[in-house]
Please model this.
Amino acid sequence: MGYIKMIRITALTILSSIFFAGAVMATPEEDRSAFSNFYTKRFSDTPVEDFINGVYSIDAASRDQWDQIEEFPPYEIDIDEGEALYQTAFKNGKTYTSCFGDDLTVIRGKYPKWNAEKSMVVTLELDINNCRKANNEKALKYKKGKMAQISAYLAMQGRGNPIDVIIPTNSPEAMAAYENGKEFFYSKRGQLNFSCADCHMANSGNYVRADRLSPALGHTSHFPVYRSKWGGLGTLHRRFGGCNKNVRAKPFPAQSASYRNLEYYLSYMNNGLELNGPGARK
Amino acid sequence: MKITKKITSIAIGLLISASSSIVIADAKSDAVSACGAAEMARKAAAQAQMEWTTTGKLIKAANKAIGKGEFDKAISVCNKAKTQGETSVIQASIESLAWESRVPK
Model:
């Protein structure tokens, strides 16, 4: 273990002399603007509002197929089942309305959000389970199944609303969570040594075998997603885990701090774009 | 004389058998030790939040090899796993500084 510590210290000493430039940290809004500009320059034929359609915003051939799929979307049954789950009362007689309020159209757009009391990022899926626990119901698993269906129902209710994630910049803890998510996005990991940015920024639009890598701009707008590869619906954190496994990085548990902070960062990068979940993807 | 020869050959046989047991015990001990070091390296990688999916699988395979008495194989696989764990820790150190240079301005 002492040997490992020695290697870390040496590596950090060398690297800090190379990378430390005393640069001022960019604000989230500056980050968002630079992030968006990167993609609008790289894909100059794609209107910025279309990036919510993922790879189909940059690939005309698969766009046609996808448009046809969206006429009879594979997630429709999940939305219906999600509605039934949402409207079914808990054993104590209360419903999800007691936690989320009456206006279904605004729920999805409130997340992810900073919870100052708990000093953490809270996602919609996390709050669905918080609501269940508060009403003495068993928590749902986070990646698929009933959780994804309820999330899909609420996503559908909020479709068309603008993404408006708020980061209280006067809160050092909220900013730390945002920066943690940002660091995750740009950090290489796994045996294959890839970061999210390697595929979805630097190589966005390029092919990995037969698939085109989607731009990260708009990534969070359409979740949960019906993925043909899964043969079903899955949440954003399920996708995060899958991506990490693809580069041979051990995934984090769904709703871990790392993934919530990553969602926080990525969602903020999509501010101003429309929510369009649930989505269908290859 | 005959009895002495018999006793000698029995004694030699017992000595060889005991030596083999000691050699096997040493080999097993070496394999267990190698896998212990690999597990420590894997845990260090996990603590650095950079564990690879491959490291744990290698350690699992090596432990199976120990169970089958394939000690040399176990040592080789665990040494590989240890290297992966150590590399993951270095990766975490490098990335803690390098990531920022990739953020578009």
